[in-house]
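FORM 12-B: Structure-to-Sequence Request
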């Protein structure tokens, strides 16, 4: 089967991770490529002993092949449709697809849904597709059409937002745009809270869906507290805090656009509520001198390390901001602290936060260990997919 696909043979011993269903082939593992292999091509991967290992998309870079099938099956349009159907059925099971109270969710989470290189987020009836590989980019129109067949009335538009995420763009003139239908930036719901999401211009696919359950948890800790929402972006943690009965909420972000969005969103949910104020400021500057103003602090920075070689710098960053929060938070205060860097492991993040606590010399206890929600599933064979890490800490 699939004999027309170029063949890639791995070096001796480099087949082990694929046999354990890890979906990445690193370029250093390749012994030989047969035929003319171009970026985005589907390739067949074999061990040094000519055993079939998997089918995947080839890409120039450190991850050379992203495997989408460990079985030697025929790769037809229907193969992709079935993958999308499975992803959709899981979101139905999670009561996210078709939910009236929460209308933003992740429909496809790359490796976590057996679709490496592909992210699809739903905002009401608009699907925002973000491709991270040329192989997925090449089949985007077909995927969009299948999505419509699967979702019917639940889908009105598909927006392709890959211009900034596909690699080696030099050869491809990627322009963001609608693949199907049309829609305007709109208001989505998360547990009944309203968010304005601009999927065309906003960060990532427009919104940080992955913090949904953590924002909701914050609500339970907010009653009567003075809350600092650092790195607030669209203000999500802020209005969950307000809903939970916070005394005051300060939202801070270095981007003026983010602060405008936060103000707009808070106003939509809590019109003329004087408890909320938002400031444009750099986190490190702002945290220098907050004294004991706050007793609930959220630290949700952007990925400090996007690549492995930036790791130690990133860990220093986590240590520093957490130390600042621990030094100044009131006794009995609670810190929600996060890392969304894929290259920072749970253990490394915890160490950095613990070093921050030690610098501050406070008693710190872990109340919750947080991660991403179920619509961002992690293949048990691909632990790298668990990128969001969080701790809720009680500080005395
Ligand atoms: N907590 C948000 C997501 C945070 S994304 C949510 O629930 O949706 C990270 C945010 O950090 C971005 O909005 C970015 O503008 C902001 N940011 C990046 N560097 C910063 C800095 N040095 N100081 C303050 N904000 C920063």
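FORM 12-B RESPONSE
SEQUENCE OUT:
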């Amino acid at each position: 089967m699939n004999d027309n696909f170029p063949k890639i043979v791995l070096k001796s011993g480099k087949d082990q991770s694929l046999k354990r269903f890890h979906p990445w082939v690193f370029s250093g593992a390749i012994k030989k490529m047969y035929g003319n292999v171009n970026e985005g091509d589907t390739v067949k991967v074999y061990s040094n002993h000519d055993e079939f290992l998997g089918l995947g998309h080839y890409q120039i870079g450190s991850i050379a092949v992203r495997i989408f099938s460990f079985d030697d099956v025929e790769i037809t349009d229907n193969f992709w449709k079935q993958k999308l159907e499975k992803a959709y059925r899981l979101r139905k099971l999670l009561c996210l697809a078709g939910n009236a109270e929460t209308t933003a969710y992740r429909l496809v989470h790359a490796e976590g849904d057996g679709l490496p290189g592909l992210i699809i987020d739903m905002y009401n009836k608009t699907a925002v597709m973000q491709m991270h590989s040329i192989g997925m980019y090449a089949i985007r129109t077909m995927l969009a059409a299948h999505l419509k067949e699967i979702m019917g009335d639940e889908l009105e538009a598909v927006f392709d937002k890959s211009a900034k995420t596909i690699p080696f763009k030099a050869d491809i003139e990627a322009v963001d745009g609608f693949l199907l239908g049309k829609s305007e930036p709109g208001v989505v719901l998360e547990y009944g809270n309203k968010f304005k999401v601009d999927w065309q211009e906003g960060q990532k696919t427009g919104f940080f869906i992955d913090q949904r359950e953590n924002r909701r948890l914050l609500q339970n800790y907010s009653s009567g507290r003075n809350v600092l929402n650092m790195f607030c972006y669209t203000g999500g943690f802020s209005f969950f805090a307000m809903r939970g009965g916070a005394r005051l909420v300060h939202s801070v972000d270095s981007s003026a656009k983010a602060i405008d969005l936060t103000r707009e969103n808070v106003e939509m949910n809590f019109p003329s509520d004087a408890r909320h104020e938002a400031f444009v400021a750099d986190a490190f500057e702002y945290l220098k001198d907050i004294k004991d103003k706050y007793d609930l602090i959220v630290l949700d920075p952007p990925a400090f390390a996007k690549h492995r070689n930036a790791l130690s710098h990133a860990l220093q960053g986590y240590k520093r901001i957490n130390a600042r929060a621990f030094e100044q938070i009131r006794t009995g205060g609670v810190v929600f602290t996060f890392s969304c860097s894929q290259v920072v492991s749970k253990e490394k993040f915890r160490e950095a936060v613990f070093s921050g606590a030690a610098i501050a010399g406070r008693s710190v206890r872990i109340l919750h260990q947080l991660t991403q929600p179920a619509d961002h599933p992690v293949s048990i064979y691909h632990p790298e997919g668990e990128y969001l890490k969080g701790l809720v800490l009680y500080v005395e």
